[in-house]
Amino acid sequence: MTSLRHVLATLGEPLVEVVVAPHGLGVDVTDVVILDPEDPLEASPGDLALVIGARGRAAAPAIRAAGRGGAAAVAVKGGTGADVAADAGVALLTVGAEARWEQVEALARGVVEAARAGGEAASGEVLGDLFALAQTIATLTGGLVSIEDTANRVLAYSRAGDEVDELRRLSILGREGPERYLAMLREWGVYQRLRAGEGIVRIDERPELGIRRRIAAGIHAGKQPLGTIWVQEGAQPLTDRAETALLGASRTLAPQLIRARTLPSPELRLREDLLASLLEGRLDAESVADDIGADPARPAQVLAFSLERSGHRQLRRAELVHLIAVHTAAYRRSALVSVIGGRVYALLPDLPEHSDAAVLALARDITATARRHLDVPVRAALGGVVPRLSEAAASRGDADRVLAAMTRGHWAADVASLADVRAEVLLSEVLAYLGSQPRIRDPRLTALVEHDTEHGGILVPAVLAWLNAFGDVRAAARALNIHPNTVRYRVRRAAEVSGMDFDDPAQRLLTELQLRL
């Protein structure tokens, strides 16, 4: 639930202005509805009602109907109706004449839905922060500020001031830059300079075009552009430190825009939660299958993706999630994608028979696309195909084991299945069990490791290299880049220190397993 005050703070002037608020701005807004005078006029408590089919006095019946229904506020175009709204006991908002209703509805609904989902969606709390930051930047620079994304959509702006030029007015009312002006800015090379990197771009005043003097700075995450801050000069010149403040603001805003881009919508968050709940055993397969339209009795498979080290990991992971979602949905309509513990998982339900080759090709396509378009290395692991959706957690476990084996074994390819690394996976699990059970370890080998740690750590590597080479001293020497006689001496010395008999097959096997810990 959110308040009318919060909705207004996000939409702001000149898009929406308050005409009258009989019960104050703290009233709760729970939904956004459309009132068309040609349809039955109905509203419910907490509604923000948008009157789209009438202006001025013609909107009076809709305003009265909103008041009777207990609506929180009603928005109209045209400056009359204050008395009607006051008598009806409902807040009245006026919407800019050139604003598009679909833009007003989308933004207002985003705020309400964000509050309903916990206040985390990009159009709610994050954009509220952006509006506050825009106002701060305006104070520091002495200008009129707007913040845009890379598609020239207006995300936030400072409060209206004097001398608003045509470019700013149309951008805010339309929630995006007008194409006529955007074309001129592109022609002047402004966007090319903004996206090239840090720095201030200056645009001279063009009175004949309706453009006042302004400065701008690109917002970047490393080399990736995230958006732009524009500062238009008003009636007073910009402050002496306006450019310094703008540069600092562009750096400050990068984390905010990363967050705005990476937070999923409530619908996407729900789908992510479904998969996470299924894989972690918190939700039954039938409930998930019913929600996504899958058959719980059909085979399923889980793919796990690991993002290698890169700058701005959060932003890259969000982009990877979208990329994986697009690819997997094209393969299986009911596919689900979620992030759990830093890894991205994709569930492929309703698998046809003999799907191995198709799924392998899908994983390779995803990793290749990520490397090509996101410029990040991604590893993909295929879990085993399970006969029914309720066993998806087992497939996820397989995928995790494969990823771990790929990391330990320096697997050259970007994609692997359990069949590819089965030996590494099984050995890893044997070692994990041995590591968790001190009682089945040979104390002689524990003593060898402790002795070697205190005396330069040269005996254990020699023994392991010798065992890996099946007792071939020369091969072990080449692996360690030392003389064969040195290998012979160190293996003999290790046997003396530990008391192990390396001629005994059982003791050799035990030695190799325990020393691999």
Description:
It is a single chain. 49% of the residues lie in helices and 17% in strands. With 517 residues, it is of the alpha+beta class. The strands form 4 sheets. The chain has a 5-stranded mixed sheet with strand order 2-7-6-5-4, sandwiched between helices. Strands 9-8-12-11-10 form a 5-stranded antiparallel sheet, sandwiched between helices. A 5-stranded mixed sheet has the order 14-15-13-16-17, with helices on both faces. Helix 4 (101-116) crosses helix 5 (122-141) and helix 17 (459-468) packs across helix 18. The two termini are 54 Å apart. The relative contact order is 0.06.
List keywords for this structure.
alpha+beta; five-stranded antiparallel β-sheet; 20 helices
Briefly say what this structure is:
This protein is α+β, with helices and mostly antiparallel strands. The protein contains 20 helices and 17 strands.
Topology:
Layout: E1 2-3, H1 4-11, E2 16-20, E3 28-29, E4 31-35, E5 47-55, H2 60-68, E6 73-77, H3 82-88, E7 91-95, H4 101-116, H5 122-141, E8 144-149, E9 154-157, H6 166-174, H7 179-187, H8 190-196, E10 200-203, E11 214-221, E12 224-232, H9 242-262, H10 266-279, H11 285-292, E13 301-307, H12 313-331, E14 336-340, E15 343-348, H13 356-374, E16 378-382, H14 392-408, E17 415-417, H15 422-436, H16 443-454, H17 459-468, H18 473-480, H19 484-498, H20 505-515
Helix pairs in contact: 1-4, 2-3, 4-5, 5-9, 9-12, 12-13, 14-15, 17-18, 17-19, 18-19
Q: What is the straight-line distance between the termini?
A: 54 Å
Number of strands: 17
Instruction: Specify the structural class.
Output: alpha+beta
Report mean pLDDT, rounded to a whole number. 81
Sequence stretches where pLDDT stays below 50 over 5 or more residues: 119-126
Instruction: Please list the strands of the largest sheet in the order they lie side by side.
Output: 2-7-6-5-4
β-sheet strand percentage: 15-25%
Q: Which overall shape is indicated by the principal axes computed on the Cα atoms? A: elongated
* Helix amount: 40-55%
Rg over alpha carbons: 32 Å
- Main beta-sheet annotation: 5 strands, mixed
What's the tally of helices? 20
